[in-house]
Design goal:
- By secondary structure, the protein is α+β, with helices and mostly antiparallel strands.
- The chain is about 40% helix and about 30% strand.
- It is built from 4 helices and 5 strands, in the order βαββαββαα.
- A 5-stranded mixed sheet has the order 4-1-3-2-5.
- The protein is globular.
- Bound molecules: flavin mononucleotide.
Length: about 130
């Protein structure tokens, strides 16, 4: 069963630019080898991550990520079954949404989640957080 999880979190103060670069590279390599798609973005002290893939794989990774001391104040945005995954690959970037592909897939991802968003206006908030408006 395919699942998706998305969250926003705050990077720990002690993280250097190099630490973040290494984390982005690590997550790309590791997710490609475990067939998890999505993306991890870092911008102005915040992370935004989307994970899509087999439920067990995605949830066990997410449980590890939640415990990771390199970030805190994690806010879960979506955690649900998906029948039509949007991400065809995994990408990680230091600058917020620098490719057209990211813009297209994130918009599509959020469009499909509009119905399941817990709070009204949440999708809009995420779009504005990501500068997608
Ligand atoms: C913001 C953030 C995002 C992360 N994303 C991933 C990820 O997508 N894939 C991954 O394997 N590890 C990711 N990690 C690292 C995991 O928390 C963990 O350190 C890693 O999976 C290694 O765990 P292990 O040594 O228990 O296997 C992330 C960590 C943080 C702080």
């Amino acid at each position: 069963m395919l699942y998706t999880i998305a969250y926003i979190s705050r990077a720990a103060d002690h993280l250097s630019t190099q630490d973040i670069q290494e984390l982005l590279q690590y997550s790309s390599r590791s997710n490609v080898s475990s067939n998890i798609n999505g993306l991890l973005l870092f911008n102005e002290g915040n992370f935004f991550q989307v994970l899509e893939g087999d439920r067990l794989a995605v949830e066990s990774l997410y449980n590890k990520i939640k415990e990771d001391s390199r970030h805190d104040s994690l806010v879960e945005l979506f955690h649900e079954r998906t029948v039509d995954p949007v991400f065809k690959e995994y990408s990680s970037q230091f600058n917020l949404i620098s490719t057209e592909y990211d813009v297209i897939v994130i918009k599509e991802y959020l469009k499909r989640r509009k119905k399941t968003a817990v709070k009204p206006g949440m999708v809009h908030q995420i779009e504005s957080f990501l500068g997608l408006e």
